[in-house]
């Protein structure tokens, strides 16, 4: 059985109001950890009051710090005294909403990661950095896999014009490894989750996950869904992986994270079964699989063997994601 060492000392979480970050903060607080939560503005308390409420109801505590991915050195104050840094901050935007790839996704992801890790090099209390990357950095998630992807693989087909989000994740993660490999004091652990699903901890969610779910029901695919499948993972399992990456001795390297592989049609069918009687939604018709299409294939055994992850079935998380949208 894989065991976690009990956490001690404060933990820095960048982009603390984010989708995955919210659950990471919750698990840390539930474990009694002091969280140093980085947010864009301390004046906009509405953005992080849900995190304060979490802390008020947990054995842990939280302190908020203002920091910006594009403001060099802005994470240093929050990082002082921290043993662990959870670098989750990075923009996740649907391709259809990206008009300036360099400004919207590439610069924040790359420059932000570089600055956070260069700050780690200056703050000698840090022993471990857990970076939130993506399966988009491992494989071409648009074209499908055809062969089974492992942690040794990289997405070499992404570019600013073809999947700018994936391109940003590739650049940011490669930069993280470059900085980590140039020193020996702290270790880097990277999480590469597939399509993350599940309710967010904040009342309003800006993650592209929720935009993708809205597209299932707003008529965007009224004629036919794209014929593709993908790895799907519960956001709570992604947060648990971050915890285990920091606190399981022997953890290291990259970890592919997914619980099941589902086609978009299978996800849509789950939503239609649960919400199809509500005439607000325009769910797409059933879309049969094209036998000529390559399947999404990847190996998640490293996360199970080294981190001890036990993945949840994703059906309930898919339902919870859309329920949060429906209730908004």
Give descriptors for this structure.
328 residues, alpha/beta, Rossmann fold, seven-stranded parallel sheet, three-stranded mixed sheet, 10 helices, 36% helix, 15% strand
Describe the structure in your own words.
This protein has 328 residues and is an alpha/beta fold. The protein is 36% helix and 15% strand. Helix 1 (19-30) packs across helix 7 (235-247). The longest helix is centred in the middle third of the chain and has 22 residues, at 101-122. The mean pLDDT is 92.
How is the biggest beta sheet arranged?
7 strands, parallel
Spatial shape? globular
First-to-last CA distance: 41 Å
Beta fraction of the residues? Answer: 15-25%
- Name of the CATH first level: Alpha Beta
Helical amount? 25-40%
DSSP E strands, number: 10
Identify the strand order in the major beta sheet.
Answer: 3-2-1-4-5-6-9
N-to-C SSE series?
EHEHEHEHEHEEHEHEEHHH
- At CATH level 2, the architecture is 3-Layer(aba) Sandwich
Kindly state the mean pLDDT as a whole number?
92
Number of domains: 1
Query: Can you tell me the CATH topology?
Result: Rossmann fold
* Unreliable residue stretches: none
Rg over CA atoms: 19 Å
Which structural class should the secondary elements be placed in?
Answer: alpha/beta
Q: Could you name the CATH homologous superfamily? A: NAD(P)-binding Rossmann-like Domain
The helix tally amounts to: 10
């Amino acid at each position: 059985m894989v065991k976690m060492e009990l956490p001690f000392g404060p933990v820095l979480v960048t982009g603390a109001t984010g989708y995955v970050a919210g659950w990471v903060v919750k698990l840390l607080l539930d474990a009694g950890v002091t969280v140093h939560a980085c947010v864009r503005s301390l004046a906009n308390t509405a953005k992080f009051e849900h995190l304060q409420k979490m802390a008020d109801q947990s054995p842990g505590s939280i302190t908020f710090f203002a920091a910006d991915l594009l403001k060099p050195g802005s994470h240093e104050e929050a990082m002082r005294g921290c043993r662990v840094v959870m670098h989750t901050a990075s923009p996740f935007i649907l391709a259809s909403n990206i008009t300036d790839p360099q400004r919207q996704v590439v610069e924040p992801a790359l420059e932000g990661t570089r600055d956070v890790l260069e700050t780690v090099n200056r703050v000698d209390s840090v022993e471990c950095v857990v970076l939130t990357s993506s399966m988009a950095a491992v494989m071409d998630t648009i074209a499908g896999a055809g062969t089974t992807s492992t942690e040794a693989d990289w997405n070499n087909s992404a570019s600013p014009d073809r999947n700018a989000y994936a391109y940003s994740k590739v650049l940011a993660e490669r930069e993280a490894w470059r900085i980590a490999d140039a020193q020996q004091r702290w270790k880097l652990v990277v999480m590469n989750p597939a399509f993350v699903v599940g309710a967010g901890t904040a009342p309003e969610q800006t993650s592209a996950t929720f935009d993708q779910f809205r597209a299932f029901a707003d008529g965007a695919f009224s004629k036919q869904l794209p014929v593709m499948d993908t790895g799907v993972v519960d956001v709570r399992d992604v947060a648990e992986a971050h915890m285990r990456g920091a606190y399981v001795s022997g953890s290291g390297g990259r970890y592919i994270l997914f619980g099941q592989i589902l086609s978009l049609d299978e996800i849509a069918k789950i939503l239609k079964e649960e919400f199809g009687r509500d005439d607000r939604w325009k769910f797409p018709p059933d879309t049969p699989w094209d036998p000529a299409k390559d399947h999404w294939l990847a190996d998640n055994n490293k996360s199970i063997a080294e981190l001890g992850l036990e993945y949840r079935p994703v059906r309930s998380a898919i339902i919870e994601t859309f329920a949060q949208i429906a209730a908004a």
